[in-house]
Specification:
By secondary structure, the chain is an alpha+beta fold. The chain is 31% helix and 31% strand. It is built from five helices and 13 strands. Strand 12 and strand 13 form a beta hairpin. The longest helix has 31 residues. The chain is flat. Keywords: Membrane, Transmembrane, Transmembrane helix.
Length: 245
């Protein structure tokens, strides 16, 4: 005999499942990020195979470097970001990220007591952005940026912005609509970074790499995960109310 559920109960089960999933994922991210504060700081990794460690030091090159596309600066970790000013929800202007690739290279972290090899960061990397250029829709692009756009698939000059009617053009200019901001989140030799990772084969496999103090970095990392945690808890609570109501 088939068992039927009221529509509200079925919806409640779905909301509960989604809420629990989002909550668990957010908690996992918060726990991983909190390693910035939970793990003791060390300055060498001798005899620490398999241990989770935190190190702060100066970046040194360990092979080929990445040339940042907008500035030409050599770096070991890079996220090149292009944001475009558009009308968002409720017609409020907002900066929309239209291009955001990242890449990394292995590097050496020079601490007060050792030179520690670090694998290329492939997980969480939080670096302060450097705005290289802000270009209006009618402005001429700097040569390096123009060349990068020509060579990069999916980054056409007219990817999102459309010129408004003449009557609305002054308003569009006042809101900076169509303006693009070219930023680089980069880590270069000579800069200071904090790395949290696990020691494996005499190297550090980084879970988190951040500039600035660990507490400040944790605050930056936690914003997204805390928002996800609140959304997950709300969805789970709504599911429970629908099930018991």
């Amino acid at each position: 005999m088939a068992i039927s559920f009221p529509a509200s109960s079925l919806f409640g089960l779905v909301m509960l499942a989604i809420g629990l999933l989002i909550t668990l994922v957010s908690l996992r991210y918060v726990w991983r990020s909190s390693a910035l504060l939970r793990v003791a700081t060390v300055s060498r990794i001798d005899d620490m195979e398999g241990s989770l460690v935190r190190l702060t030091g100066t970046v040194e090159a360990d092979g080929d470097l990445i040339e940042a596309p907008f500035s030409g600066v050599d770096c070991v970790t890079l996220r090149a970001s292009v944001e475009e000013r558009r009308l968002g929800s409720f017609l409020f202007p907002t900066d929309v990220t239209i291009h955001d690739p990242s890449q990394s290279r292995p590097f050496v972290l020079r601490t007060p007591h050792a030179a520690v090899p670090v694998d290329a960061p492939t997980r969480t990397v939080v670096l302060d952005p450097t705005v290289v250029a802000t270009v209006g829709p009618a402005d001429t692009l700097p040569d390096r940026i123009a060349r990068y756009e020509r060579r990069t698939d999916g980054l056409a000059p007219d990817s999102g912005y459309r010129s408004p009617p003449a009557a609305l053009a002054p308003l569009a200019r006042a809101l900076s609509l169509g303006t693009r901001r070219y930023s680089e989140h980069r880590l270069s030799p000579g800069e200071t970074v904090t790395v949290v990772g696990r020691v494996a084969d005499g190297r550090v496999d980084p879970l988190v790499a951040v500039d600035g103090s660990p507490a400040r970095a944790l605050l930056r990392l936690s914003k997204t995960s805390v928002a996800g945690l609140l959304v997950g808890l709300f969805a789970a609570a709504l599911g429970v109310l629908l099930l018991v109501g």
